[in-house]
Amino acid sequence: MTVADADKKPLLIVMRQSPYGTSLAKAAVDVALATAAFDQLVDLLFVGDGVLQLLAGQDSQSLGKKNIGRQLASLPLYDINQVYFDAEAVSRYNLDMSSSPVTAKLLNPQEMQQLMVAYDHLLGL
Q1: Per-residue pLDDT tens for 51-95?
Q2: What is the mean pLDDT of residues 91-120?
Q3: Closest by alpha carbon to 99, among 45, 57, 43?
Q4: What global pTM score does this model have?
Q5: 105: closest CA among 120, 122, 83, 88?
Q6: What is the pLDDT of residue 6?
Q7: CA neighbor of 18 nearest in space, from 42, 47, 57
Q8: Which of 18, 43, 47, 66 has its CA 20 to 30 A from that of 2?
Q9: CB under 8 Å, gap of 24 or more: what pairs does 99-107 form?
């Protein structure tokens, strides 16, 4: 964080939706990228079904939708570098996060609660 960033209040976007069941997952990614494009600080937390957005090699073409994983892979280009995963959801779905399009830190429920309290602005989708 730079001196200019010290006055900015970061936004934590909580991603709760599976990738293709509704348009909410894509909308959350779009909000994150648009917010960051306007030089705002954005961090992401993937919880519950939202961790399914992080699966590598998703074939969304058969659903007629754009691949969310490709958008997520572009997060560093928008300076979105703080990304967190719900460790319990990752375990429940038996996911291998080593091939995820995003590098993130796994958090247990207590750590997620502490994280959310630390932010002035939360957006949950």
Answers
A1: 998 887 666 666 666 778 888 999 999 999 999 999 999 999 999
A2: 92
A3: 57
A4: 0.86
A5: 83
A6: 55
A7: 47
A8: 47
A9: 99/56, 99/57, 100/54, 100/55, 100/56, 101/54, 101/56, 101/69, 101/70, 101/72, 101/73, 102/54, 102/72, 102/73, 102/75, 104/44, 104/46, 104/54, 107/45
Structure tokens at 29: 């990614």
Count Cβ atoms below 10 Å from residue 95 Cβ, excluding itself: 17
Structure tokens at 7: 């006055």
What span, in angstroms and rounded, lies between the C-alpha atoms of 109 and 27? 25
Would you state the structure tokens that stand for residue 86, as one six-digit string? 């719900």
Beta bridge partners of 45: 14, 84
Contacts of 108 (CB under 8 A, 6+ apart): 87, 88
The span from the CA of 25 to the CA of 81, in Å, is 19
40 DSSP assignment: -
Q: What is the pLDDT of residue 3?
A: 41
